[in-house]
Write a structure and sequence with these properties.
Blueprint: E1 3-13, E2 18-26, E3 29-34, E4 42-47, E5 52-55, E6 57-62, H1 83-92, E7 95-103, H2 110-121, E8 128-134, H3 140-152, E9 157-161, H4 171-184, E10 187-191, H5 195-207, H6 213-218, H7 222-238, E11 244-246, H8 252-263, E12 268-272, H9 275-278, H10 303-315, E13 320-321, H11 357-367, H12 373-387, E14 405-415, E15 434-444, E16 447-451, E17 454-455, H13 471-474
Parallel strand pairs: 1-4, 1-5, 6-7, 7-8, 8-9, 9-10, 10-11, 11-12, 12-13
Antiparallel strand pairs: 1-2, 2-3, 5-14, 14-15, 15-16, 16-17
Helix pairs in contact: 3-4, 4-7, 7-8
The structure holds N-(aminocarbonyl)-beta-alanine (URP) and zinc ion (3 copies).
């Protein structure tokens, strides 16, 4: 048997096991996985002795080239990353699939929004991508025709917001969207924060002149997230229990709500993000506008919340670890759009994290022994693939799967600097962190897209991925 490419001498990790194997790749797919592939069997050979071969990461929570809704508090703030730099940054960080949001603006059609995001990605994406649908205006046309058609066309996951004035849905609207998701077997993602409470708190802080970045965190305490998480899961229960993802969970109280809902039999999937492990409110409490670099929603919290998120990763409460990459520069185009010193309510929320997601968790989770390598793979690739209908093609190392692979040097010591990340954002909140382990060579469908710090991929080679039925529907009982 002969192959286009053979990776020789590596250690392969999947969500289930870690084993030594040579990998034969033909036509972009894994064609053989064997203890030893005969010498000379590959048209090209790569010696990966001493390296870990992981499935390329799937980052299922990224904002790329997303237009701010008109009327948003930070209206006009532009995302720095389009699909070219966003997916390039993904590749440099060992991620070979992104799922970003196709966002409807109120008063416009969701179908047109999706067509627009297809145009933004085509000709630009370096790795493969899918879209979640963000529903902000669930009209009868959207609920009755557009959503069913878009789900059938391969966008089988929908996000709803419980806050942000320009995007949020009322409970009744969330119910309607969830019911359509249930009927057409789509997955629902919820941004869960209590809008009325956080707005009231923010206005009181503002009235006292407390408008610095740290007050953003103080306006959105954990109970704001706890209540909304409970309400979102109640709405899911009422709507026939479509698989429901609580995204960007930041601490113990929403985690408890998720556990309770699971105990009642709901299919609840929980996601956390690097900022809830590695940042805290103190990172927002810095001189000048430095704290804006760590401003996201929900905000990073305290050591106890970080510990609760780590425990959730260790004990299986969290199924997903995604970045919530929201790429705003620290300049007049991005976070400082409203001026050099804007009150926190005028600063765009979100932090970059596509390229740092995997290296941070690898170093502080796997190298430290907190989570096994198999769990790292599950959290960062396999579970996203299964939940969002990209398996078995994506998210694992198996014969027949796409050869989306990250070759890691598990011992390489790296000091995180913004230049390593290849996004268009002008900062990383992790600048200066010293970590161990780095993805040095990254393949997408058998093609080397990154090697030794250099991009080898042609923009536009990335393809749109149609999601198939989520394993949360396809398999009885708990999906994982
Ligand atoms: O602050 C955040 N997370 N901004 C990105 C949008 C979202 O809510 O996920
Ligand atoms: Zn969100
Ligand atoms: Zn987000
Ligand atoms: Zn090359």
């Amino acid at each position: 048997m002969s192959f286009d490419l053979v990776l020789r001498g590596g250690t392969v990790a999947t969500a289930a096991e870690v084993f030594a194997a040579d990998i034969g790749i033909t036509d972009g797919r894994i064609a053989a996985l064997a203890e030893r592939i005969a010498p000379g069997a590959g048209a090209r050979e790569m010696d990966v002795t001493g390296r870990l071969i992981l499935p390329g990461g799937i980052d299922a929570h990224v904002h790329i080239d997303q237009a701010q809704s008109p009327g948003a508090a930070a209206a006009g703030a532009a995302m720095a990353d389009g699909f070219r730099t966003g997916t390039t940054s993904a590749a440099f960080g060992g991620t070979t699939t992104t799922i970003s949001f196709a966002v409807q603006h109120r008063g416009t059609s969701l179908r047109d929004a999706v067509a627009d995001y297809h145009r933004r990605a085509e000709g630009n994406a370096v790795v493969d991508y899918a879209f979640h649908l963000t529903v902000t205006d669930p009209t009868q046309a959207v609920l009755g025709q557009e959503l069913p058609a878009l789900i059938a066309a391969g966008c089988r996951s929908l996000k709803v917001y419980m806050t942000y004035e320009a995007m949020r849905l009322g409970d009744r609207e969330i119910l309607e969207v969830m019911a359509v998701a249930r009927a057409h077997r789509a997955v629902v993602l919820v941004h869960a924060e209590n809008h009325e409470v956080l707005t009231w708190l923010a206005e009181r802080l503002e009235a006292r002149g407390e408008t610095r970045p740290v007050h953003h965190a103080r306006s959105r305490p954990l109970f704001v997230e706890r209540e909304a998480t409970h309400r979102a899961l109640t709405l899911s229960e009422a709507a026939g229990a479509p698989p429901t993802v609580i995204v960007h969970v930041s601490g113990a109280e929403p985690i408890e709500e998720i556990r309770r809902a699971r105990a009642r039999g709901l299919t609840v999937v929980a996601e956390t993000c690097p900022q809830y492990l590695f940042l805290s409110e103190g990172d927002l409490d810095l001189p000048d506008m430095e704290g804006a670099k760590a401003m996201c929603s929900p905000p990073p919290r305290d050591a106890a919340s970080q510990a609760a998120c780590w425990r959730g990763l260790e004990d299986g409460t969290f199924d997903l670890f995604n970045s919530d990459h929201a790429p705003y520069r620290m300049d007049g185009e991005g976070k400082l759009r409203a001026g050099p010193n804007p009150p926190f309510r005028r600063v765009a929320n979100g932090i970059p994290g596509l390229a740092t997601r995997l290296p941070l968790l690898f170093s502080e989770g796997v190298v430290t022994g907190r989570i096994p390598l198999t769990r790292f793979v599950a959290l960062t690739a396999t579970n996203n693939a299964r939940l969002y209908g990209l398996a078995p093609r994506k998210g694992t190392v198996a014969v027949g799967a796409d050869a989306d692979l990250a070759v890691w040097d598990p011992e390489r010591r790296v000091t995180v600097t913004n230049a390593l990340l290849h996004h268009a954002v002008d900062y990383t909140p992790y600048e200066g962190m010293r970590i161990t382990g780095w993805p040095e060579t990254v393949l997408s469908r058998g093609e080397v897209v990154v090697a030794d710090g250099v991009l080898h991929a042609r923009p536009g080679r990335g393809r749109f991925l149609e999601q198939t039925l989520s394993s949360a529907y396809a398999e009885a009982g708990r999906w994982i």
